[in-house]
Every structure is written in structure tokens, then in C-alpha cells.
Amino acid sequence: MAGLEGAVIAVTGAASGIGRALALGLARRGARLALADRDAKGLAETLGFIGNYPAITRVFDVTDHAALRAFVEDAASEWDGLDGMINNAGLSVVAPFVDCPRADFDRVMAVNFDAVVEGTRLALPYLRARGAGWIVNISSVFGMMGYPTQSAYNASKFAVRGFTEALALELAVTDPAICVIRVHPGGVRTNVARNAKLVAHLPGTPADIDSAAEFEKAARTTPEAAAEAIIRGMEKRRHRVLIGPDARFIDWMVRLFPETYFRRIGLFLGGGSAR
Questions:
Q1: CB proximity list for 232: less than 8 A, separation 6 or greater
Q2: Cβ(167)–Cβ(115) under 8 Å?
Q3: Third-level CATH fold of 8-269
Q4: Overall pTM > 0.70
Q5: Mean pLDDT score, 65-79
Q6: How many whole angstroms separate alpha carbon 4 and alpha carbon 24?
Q7: What span, in angstroms and rounded, lies between the C-alpha atoms of 145 and 142?
Q8: Active-site residue identified among 126, 147, 153, 261
Q9: Residue 126 catalytic?
């Protein structure tokens, strides 16, 4: 498939933020959409914003792999195939590793990484049947650098990065018309930081600090701008998309100062979690 006009694209995490903006941007380009989220109200609002563009929605948690399978199958059945999968759903927990309950750590990994792998696994047969398409996996700048109190998020996003890089290299040999894209957003004004579960701050952190508010002050990119960058990456068939000036800055800093980057860019980043 040369372009997005008429393409069948599945998007997880479509009830708000980047996922909603992706749905709107893809619809404007003539794509047919399958949208998923566990937030039924937010997903219905996204569908309302899309209007008369062709779209179906499914409400489920991406850690429910049976429901995820049904979602992909429904998308392919609705329009006789699938051209793209955007694994966008994600969450975070704020806690130093020693204070992070196993269940919270595992939940972040299940949503941010395991569901990405499963979504990719389910979509690939349909893309291979088409002979072309897109796999788009959302990592983060926290898939390029470590950040205190974000060990679970870091682990999940580094894992997405490694998985997606390896897949891109493999499909370049076996299925070169399938474009595999890893996305590294910097600070984007979404609900991920606001909805993050707060377990504990680092010792010495002011007790009244509002990590989400600090993140929102530092976030430099709107969801709409982030979605547009991703869609342009799909159209240009790029394999890596950096979103925002902070992402580009961090990319250089971790290359130039692999051991001391955090000390150098801590003030630039501000607080909270990047998405």
C-alpha cells in the first residue's frame, strides 16, 4: 500500500491523547479505523470527533490477549484485511524500584510491552497477506535514557525499543514492504503523567511535589503535533520517529555523554514521566 487513503489501521489507546489525535489525523487522510481503549466514555468521544469517517471501536484492556485478538480479527473482518497496527496504549507508575510493588511493575510491563508484542504478533499475518503495511510501536525518550522513579516505565519502553528494532531488521529481509516504526515521544501533554499511580518519591523529594503538574509544565508538544509526526513517519516509511525538541536533545545527550547525561539534562527535563 502506497499511502493511507483507504488503509485499514488499528490503534490502541485511542480514547485520549496521542491515540485520539492519531485517529483524527488518520481519518482526515482517508484511513479506515479500528480503535480500542478500556475507557468507554473517552473512546465514544473520539468516535464522535471522527464523525462520518469509517471506524469501529472496541472497549477492552490490552492485557486481555483474547480481547486483543478479537479486536484485530474484527478490524480485518470489517474491511477484508488490515494494513497497519499502532500499539499506543501505555501507563506509568511513580516509585523507586525498592518501593515499587511487584504487581504495579508487572502491570506496567504487561500494558506497555507485552501488549505491544501481542498486538504485533496478531497483526503481522494480515500485513503479510496484504504484502505491505505498517507496525508502529510507541516507545518513549524513557526508552533511550533512565529516569529515577520510572524503573518499570523505563524497562517497558527500552524493551519496546529493542523489540521493534530487531523486528525492523528481520522484516527488512523477509517482508521489506512492511514498515516497522519505533516512536520516541518526549514530553507530550497527555494524561499519562496525570493518571500515573504514585507509590513513592525518591528520599529527599519535597512531600508536596506534584509530579504530574511538573511534567505538564515541562511538556513541549501537543498530542496533535505528536500524531502528525507519527503519521508523516508512516507516509515517509521511516523506521524511527523522535517527537519534540526534548526528544531530539535527549537523543544527542545520551550519545555524547552516555555516563553523565542525566546530570546534564535533569533541569531541562523537569519532573514527571515522559510519554
A1: none
A2: no
A3: Rossmann fold (3.40.50)
A4: yes
A5: 98
A6: 13
A7: 5
A8: 153
A9: no
